[in-house]
Specification:
By secondary structure, the chain is of the alpha/beta class. It is about 35% helix and about 20% strand. The protein has three domains: about 5-85, Winged helix-like DNA-binding domain superfamily/Winged helix DNA-binding domain (Arc Repressor Mutant, subunit A, Orthogonal Bundle); about 90-200 and about 375-390, Nucleotidyltransferase, domain 5 (2-Layer Sandwich), CATH 3.30.420.40; about 210-370, Nucleotidyltransferase, domain 5 (2-Layer Sandwich), CATH 3.30.420. The protein contains ten helices and 15 strands. It has a five-stranded mixed β-sheet. The chain starts with 6 loop residues before the first helix and ends in an 11-residue tail after the last helix.
């Protein structure tokens, strides 16, 4: 018989366990008294909850350390609690053009295995089949009882409630169901778009600057955003939260968007849009791969340099508007924006708008480069975030 008999008691325990786990994620291994100071929980309560977390393979005790770190100081040494290396794990799967990658991460954040499966075309069937194969290999690399869940992400508009990719311009998908095939694998599955996952990864990254409310704007093949408010991702109903590709661009180049409007952000500032304009203006040969438009060694033409700087400033104006509206503590512009000069042009545009309007003047503006290896970790952050909020749904020993 479990020790929790009512929904209220279970809710209280859920909140207490979540508070402990979140502090260990953000602060690293922590002793019981330290956890008591930052959570307000009693030593007795913490000890009782820790028993379930140790029995569930989530936490373990590290070697005792002297109080205050001084070897000669009198007093009983503290025993830190930390996540078990190689214990409970989360799996992150990311679907991009031409390949899918699935990796295993333990709760210390260490990547313990990774598998990439290419697919020849971006139509849903072969892409999903490749993503499933990569995920199956990741799951097979650990014992089933260790897996908390699988997070799946891809670019574009994703309905988190249904697990349907509503629109992925990069893959050319519309209304593609991801939840059904991935649910058949067994573990709990969470699905979202890549940028919202990226924001969650930063939220629970103990090495990142600590902020409770921040805006992430990502630009590459797509442009999208995610907003964390009081340490929770703003989701909203359906799939529209963070979709900024149809924001109007003032004094744009006159590009018609598939939606029928002219100069939407998504057809002006993405790398593909930049490549298209460079080719149209004769600044790049038509055969130049679109991904090469931001190569530093191609930034020799004055016209191309000006075009790239213009893209940086247009993006900066859009971010400035979002920054003024949401007024976060930090705004992160993520993605490879080009040279240092182009990055600074974008950031300077945001700062200048804040000074000019008085909106968001206290917001910290940052740029974040996002390597390919970041996306499966970001996908896994979907599960980590849910686990850190609802731990008793994942670890049954917490109910004993």
């Amino acid at each position: 018989m479990t020790g929790v008999h009512t929904p209220l008691m279970r809710s209280i325990r859920e909140g207490n366990v979540a508070a402990l786990l979140q502090r260990i994620v953000l602060d690293g291994p922590s002793a019981r008294k330290q956890l008591g100071r930052v959570t307000g929980l009693s030593f007795t309560t913490i000890t009782r909850l820790v028993t379930g977390l140790v029995d569930g393979g989530v936490l373990h005790e590290l070697p005792a350390r002297p109080v205050g770190g001084a070897a000669s100081r009198a007093g009983r040494p503290e025993t830190p609690l930390g996540f078990v290396p190689g214990g409970r794990v989360v799996v992150g799967t990311h679907i991009r053009a031409a390949s899918a990658t699935s990796s295993v991460f333990d709760l210390t954040g260490s990547r313990t295995a990774s598998f990439t499966v290419p697919f020849p075309v971006s139509s849903p069937e072969p892409a999903i089949a490749a993503a499933l194969r990569a995920t199956e290999r990741a799951l097979a690399s650990v014992s089933p009882g260790r897996v908390l869940g699988v997070g799946v992400s891809t670019g574009g508009v994703v309905d988190t409630d249904t697990g349907v990719v509503v629109d992925s311009p990069l893959l050319g998908w519309r209304d593609v169901d991801l939840r059904t095939p991935f649910t058949r694998l067994g573990p709990p599955v969470l699905i979202d778009n890549s940028v919202r996952c990226l924001a969650l990864d930063r939220l629970w990254d103990g090495q990142a600057p600590r902020t409770d409310t921040f805006l992430t704007v990502f630009v590459a093949n797509v442009v999208a955003s995610a907003l964390i408010v009081d340490r929770s991702l703003l989701g909203g109903p359906g799939a529209s939260a963070g979709q900024i590709s149809h924001l109007p661009v003032r004094n744009g180049p006159g590009t018609v968007c598939p939606c029928g409007a002219t100069d939407c952000l998504g057809v002006v500032v993405t790398n593909r849009a930049l490549h298209r304009r460079a080719v149209e203006q004769g600044l790049l040969p038509a055969a130049t791969p679109w991904a090469d438009v931001l190569r530093d060694d191609l930034d020799t033409s004055p016209g191309l340099r000006l075009l790239r700087l213009e893209r940086a400033r247009i993006l900066g104006e859009a971010v400035a508007t979002l920054n003024a509206f949401s007024n976060p503590e930090t705004t992160v512009i993520a993605g490879y924006l080009g040279t240092d000069e182009e990055v600074e042009a974008c950031l300077a545009t945001v700062r200048a708008h804040a000074v000019r309007t008085g909106a968001g003047t206290l917001c910290r503006i940052e740029h974040q480069v996002v390597p390919h290896s970041a996306w499966d970790r970001a996908s896994a952050a979907l599960v980590l975030d849910d686990f850190l909020r609802r731990p008793t749904s994942y670890v049954t020993t917490l109910l004993d």
